[in-house]
Design goal:
Pfam families: Polysacc_deac_1. This is Chitooligosaccharide deacetylase. By secondary structure, the chain is an alpha/beta fold. The protein is built from seven helices and ten strands. Strands 2, 3, 4, 7, 8, 9 and 10 form a seven-stranded mixed β-sheet that branches.
């Protein structure tokens, strides 16, 4: 697991802290479920986590805007997101991302549309980003998200060749302070939610927190369920 330097959250330590919006329902950083297997040299595609618990997963992409309020919001909420970083946005900002209570995963080097591209091009984008993140944060990422959510069989082969466990997309997104659903009008258990490091970070993250609370869900780390 590729994590930042933030201290792990445990149920025991939660009782010693001021009340947060969400308290950890289990010790974060412990595997709750494993990723589906890599089959025929292709990583599995995960868009929703199968769970009978009231859990939801927040993921944050790109890293283009290093918003100064991000760390404070995450810690006050008690929410540990999973972030998918591009080399072109994250390069030169290691100190910013390392101080966030997040786990860092891969999102290509330069954020191209991978669909229909050749194997070597895709492998260069995916492995190159994984190498960069491993060098910056000390461990190689295990999860990969293709830019724009676009992929093909070549993408899945390339990601497997780079050592990834799963390709992760999403079931809901947050834009301009509003949660948008692919189906229905609420978040449901197992949903993977997408947002971005943008100037609207505060509005977007707050909208997600409020929606999760309204729908009776607790945000937990994605990688704990793709161990």
């Amino acid at each position: 697991m590729l994590t930042t330097s933030a201290a792990p959250v445990t149920a025991a330590s939660a009782s010693e802290r001021p009340k947060r919006m969400f308290e950890p329902p289990y010790p974060y950083g412990t595997v709750q479920a494993k990723a589906p297997a890599v089959v025929d040299g292709m990583v599995p595609v995960v868009t929703k986590i199968h769970t009978d618990k009231p859990y939801v997963f927040i993921t944050i992409d790109d890293g283009a805007v290093q918003h100064p309020k991000a760390r404070e919001l995450m810690i006050e909420a008690g929410v540990w997101p999973s972030v998918f970083l591009n080399t072109k946005y994250a390069e030169g900002h290691r100190d910013y991302f390392k101080q966030l209570p997040v786990t860092v995963h891969s999102h290509t080097t330069s954020h191209p549309n991978l669909q229909s591209k050749g194997f070597e091009f895709q492998k260069h984008e995916i492995c190159g980003n994984a190498d960069f993140l491993a060098n910056e944060y000390g461990k190689r990422p295990t999860l990969f998200r293709p830019p724009f959510g676009n992929y093909d069989a070549t993408t899945r082969h390339a990601a497997a060749s780079c050592g990834f466990k799963a390709l992760v997309n999403w079931t809901a997104a947050v834009n301009d302070g509003r949660v948008q659903f692919q189906q229905g009008d609420r978040l449901t258990a197992g949903d993977v939610v997408l947002m971005h490091f943008r100037t609207t970070f505060v509005e977007d993250f707050t909208a997600f927190l409020n929606r999760a609370k309204q729908d009776g869900l607790t945000p937990v780390p994605l990688e704990d369920f793709l161990g």
